[in-house]
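Lab manual, section 2.4: Encoding a predicted structure.

Procedure: take the sequence of the chain (321 residues), apply the prediction step described in section 2.3, and record the output as structure tokens. A sample record is shown.
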Amino acid sequence: MALEDAKTQVDQAFTRDDLKGPSFENAFGGATSFLRRRYTKDLTGVDIAVTGVPFDQAVTNRTGTRLGPRAIREASSLQPYDPPYGWDFDVLSEFAIADYGDLAFDYGHVSQFPAALTAHIKGILDAGAASVVLGGDHYISFPILKAYAEKYGPISLLQFDAHSDTWPDDDIDRIDHGTMFYKAVKSGIVDPKTSVQVGIRTTNPDTLGVTTIDAREVHELGPAAAVAKIKAVLGDRPCYLTFDIDALDPAFAPGTGTPVWGGLTSAQAAIMLRDLAGINIMGGDIVEVSPPFDTTGATAIAGAHVATEILCLLGHRMRTA
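Recorded output:
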């Protein structure tokens, strides 16, 4: 296959006959699944399922992250021609990756949303696949982690973020994107002793024992030192990676609900994500992409690359298991 196949390939999200390999349809046309993977609700033989969660009820400031999954899928149409750069294998060719579509939920019954999402992810895990989730505000990680903890036990969390999201909130049913990791730790879903937060640059007096690598530390010591510290804390425990796009500085990702200056550069994030190869990652998400606040599409492009790096981290773990 080569770029000349764009003459005949179109709508690969529906017309491709397998779950592996690149796609050469025109980037500006066709149905925009993530990385032009095939849309399917049949997870037979699927290694990794990409799914969208268009939910943004719990934002602090600017709404719009419900449109994140759609924007990330569109931005990803520039990527599926070649193997992801910097890796020694091609995750798209070696693994069966499907776009599982979006979570269906009743926006009029917000209280029912968490259980619906946990069941959605549980269905993916029960089918033997890992999930990569396109969000959505950051609250979605809490119901997702419930499904992962049910399968793997208390899980380690690797969180890229401007905010720790461990502010106290003992109302377990309250839906808030700034307190869900407090609840995850307190309810035993996340093991704080083997969890790490990277890029933090807002005040929180109690991180509940989670190791913090703030943005300044990354800037001063560099990505390689940060990765070494992350790996030392995580060890070989099963972990879940969540990447809030506001981990990046607003100069690189302005389209988010809670931008904070002094953040990571896209180059730093790319280096760290690739150098994390070898961690025992079970799944991940990219959240808080809010397209209405970035007409350039740079934030969605960053989100699409983060999701691709998570795919590669999962593929690396699977091929070396």
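Check your result against the sample. Residues 298-320 form the longest helix (23 residues).
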